[in-house]
Design brief:
The protein has 7 helices and 16 strands. By secondary structure, the chain is α+β, with helices and mostly antiparallel strands. The strands form 3 sheets. Strands 1, 2, 3, 4, 5, 8, 9, 10 and 11 form a 9-stranded mixed β-sheet that branches. Strands 12-14-15-16-13 form a 5-stranded mixed β-sheet, covered by helices on one side. The protein has a two-stranded antiparallel ribbon with strand order 6-7. It is elongated.
């Protein structure tokens, strides 16, 4: 059965985001599955997946804000800036106080210049930096502007500091850990990272791969795991369109939506849960569909029965 929706998975440590996507494809037997924000293999937590025609919503989540909790270990840096990498030198004695680290963390809040890790997807002459780093080739990445909206050290136990961060898209928390170690002079790396929020999605929405597998074996239980479409992209108001308007939108035609004449972009629904399109206002109450989403599973089934493709 075709599934168009958004599903939040708790990514386990040790898997890449693409590993999770491939597993969910097999579990749901869906060919079209994507994710809305990569997590490093070390990291765990919120990994939103989009299925079916709703994979086209990914463009609206590129700049989504994210919240993380994690642990920084002081004493030595690594080549990947996290505990998956090789130490860059011998361990050093660490002698810092909680208030000192907390004061240092405040300097990273706001718009800052940040150099991405050498083991990252940033491209150098079209080649991802991590591919060059794995071959021990020189990786020279330029600093970029990133925004850290919150960054606080929650506690310090020996060499280990637990933190919480809220960041804009494009920020590398690994780089923050590395830079703090350089600033103190003892080196540091990220040893644990858990994403708790991405956009409107939280851990409270998330399911493990094991839970998804069990639900898939139970048949209809999977549908209850998907985020209700009206919760998606809360910055866009919703409108429930008539059958006539929905037909026009599905044909790519502009339509009048007078009840939302002040909105820039809107979510157009057929009924309560069938997300038909994201439409952009042209002028006044006239909206043009920016993206048109596919049929629901029910609609596809009814259409195929009407065409005699199966009974």
């Amino acid at each position: 059965m075709l599934m168009n929706g958004v599903l939040i998975i708790v990514k386990p440590s040790g898997l890449t985001s693409d590993d999770v996507v491939n597993r969910v494809r097999r579990i749901l037997q869906q060919p079209s599955v994507g994710h809305l924000g990569t997590l490093d293999p070390l990291a765990t937590g919120v990994l939103p997946l989009v299925t079916g025609s709703l994979t086209r919503l990914a463009q609206f989540y590129k700049l989504s804000e994210k919240t993380y909790e994690g642990v920084i270990r002081f004493g030595f840096a690594t080549d990947t800036y996290d505990s998956d990498g090789e130490p860059s030198g011998p361990a050093r004695e660490v002698n810092v106080l909680l208030e000192d680290v907390q004061g240092m963390a405040e300097r990273y809040v706001g718009l800052i210049d940040q150099t991405p890790p050498p083991f990252s997807a940033k491209k150098i002459n079209g080649v991802p930096a991590y591919k060059l780093a794995r071959k021990h080739k020189e990786v020279s990445l330029k600093p970029v502007k990133v925004e850290i909206k919150e960054f606080g050290i929650l506690d310090l136990e020996g060499d280990w500091a637990r933190f919480r961060a809220r960041v804009a898209s494009g920020t590398y928390v690994r780089s923050v850990a590395h830079d703090m170690g350089q600033q103190i002079g003892c080196g540091a790396h990220l040893t644990a990272l858990r994403r708790t929020v991405l956009g409107e999605f939280t851990l409270g929405d998330a399911h493990t791969l094991e839970e998804l597998t069990a639900a898939a074996q139970g048949g209809d239980e999977v549908a209850a795991m998907f985020i209700h479409p009206r919760r998606l992209l809360p910055q866009f108001p919703c409108v429930t369109a008539s059958d006539e308007v929905v037909a026009q939108i599905r044909n790519g035609r502009a339509v009048n939506l007078p009840e939302l004449s002040q909105a820039k972009q809107v979510k157009v629904f057929a009924g309560q849960s069938d997300l038909v399109a994201i439409a952009t206002r042209i002028a006044g109450a006239l909206f043009h569909p920016k993206i048109v989403l596919g049929e629901s599973a029910k609609q596809e089934s009814e259409r195929m029965k009407a065409q005699g493709r199966y009974r």
